[in-house]
Amino acid sequence: MSDVRAGELFVLGFDGRDAPPRALTRLRDRWGLGGAILFARNVDHPDQVRGLTRALRAMAPEPWFHVSTDQEGGGFQRLPPPRFGTYPAACDVSPAAALALGVRMGAELADLGVSLDLAPVLDTHTNPNNPIINVRSFSSDPAVVAAAGRAFVRGLAVHGVHACGKHFPGHGDTDLDSHLDLPRVDHPGERLDAVELRPFREVVADGVLSCIMPAHVVYPAFDPDRPATYSRAILDGILRRNIGFAGVVLTDDLGMAGALSHGDLVDCCVEAFAAGCDQLLVCEHHDRHEACVAAVAEAIARSPALTARYAESRARIRRTFSPGQPA
Question: Residue 324 has what pLDDT?
Fold first, then answer.
């Protein structure tokens, strides 16, 4: 398949506050580019961010190209106060307040040119020793998480900002941080369905959620060998077939330790795509971005099955992110 634009399957981070970075421009010219992600290292003040997002869109003018960031609230904001909005942590947001929070946050993100918020966290926080989810979760009650998540997603959508629910099928009952290690959730399937999956199932059923981010976490009841990021049993069997999610599956950063515990970064990109992820997030490792894209392009060219996966993902990305599609 000579016309594979494998870069459209990638969302990449970069250094600096100016765009377009030469490396992203070179990669986009050869393979295309699906999106860029902003971190605190990329932002200074609102006018600078507006200029940065305009430059990124000029570099990659395809209508489905998206600019994303993690703007959850509390201490998890890539656009930090006081130069940007001040928002409460999810644990302090009730379902009744979540809609207004999403509307306010969506208005700011849309004004800045950010089209995808890597939020809300739909993990149910049931482990008090969880080092990474804790205050990022709406509640220890999955019904509350579902209700607040639905409202927050609807609020973002008022201003055309897409939402990404994370970390499927649930990172709330781990005692390890997947940035630093590979956690496990050893509950039986019945408990996972009742607690971990419930918020995802209910938010997906609401019909507004654009993206879901799988966790770099092993769930032996669903797949004894592979984290969700690399598990067809979880991504295809549970998320697509059981829950019925039709949007984009976007990986968590594949440079995290939980992802790299499964192999080299380049191989992990290929494996995540083959397992059912539509877009691959690589926030760091800037010197390896081209190698990652080239490896996915070569894998697609060699495999009829991956060629079919590429066509599905490409159509799904366009359907989800092109203007005029519901956020």
Answer: 67
On whether residue 14 sits in a domain, the answer given is: yes
Quickly state the pLDDT bin for 23 (edges 50, 70, 90): confident
| Sequential DSSP letters for 6-72 | GGGGEEE--SSSSSS-HHHHHHHHHH---EEEE-GGG-SSHHHHHHHHHHHHHHS--TT-EEEE-EE
Structural domain including 231 reads 6-284+297-321
Do 214 and 245 touch, CB atoms closer than 8 A? no
Beta bridge partners of 71: 77
256 has pLDDT over 50: yes
Summarize pLDDT for 143-166 with one digit per residue, the tens.
999 999 999 999 999 999 999 999
Rounded to two decimals, the pTM is 0.97
Please give the Cα distance from 242 to 100 (Å, whole number): 31
Model pLDDT for residues 186-198, shown as the tens digit of each residue: 999 999 999 999 9
Closest CA to 92 of 116, 125, 132: 125
Q: Which residues are catalytic?
A: 252
Residue 136 DSSP symbol: G
Cα distance between residue 281 and residue 302, in whole Å: 23
Kindly state the tokens that stand for 64: 């489905």
Distance CA 157, CA 176 (A): 32
CATH number at residue 16: 3.20.20.300
- pLDDT band at residue 1 using 50, 70 and 90 as cut-offs: very low
pLDDT exceeds 80 at position 325: no
Residue 39 in domain: yes
Integer CA distances (angstroms), 220 to 41, 152, 172, 231, in order:
37, 31, 16, 11
CA dihedral 209, 157, 89, 85 (to 10 degrees): 150
φ, ψ at 281 (rounded to 5°)? -95, 120
Q: How far apart are the C-alpha atoms of 171 and 177, rounded to whole Å?
A: 9
- Percent of the chain at pLDDT > 90 equals 95
Q: Are 327 and 114 in contact (CB under 8 A)?
A: no
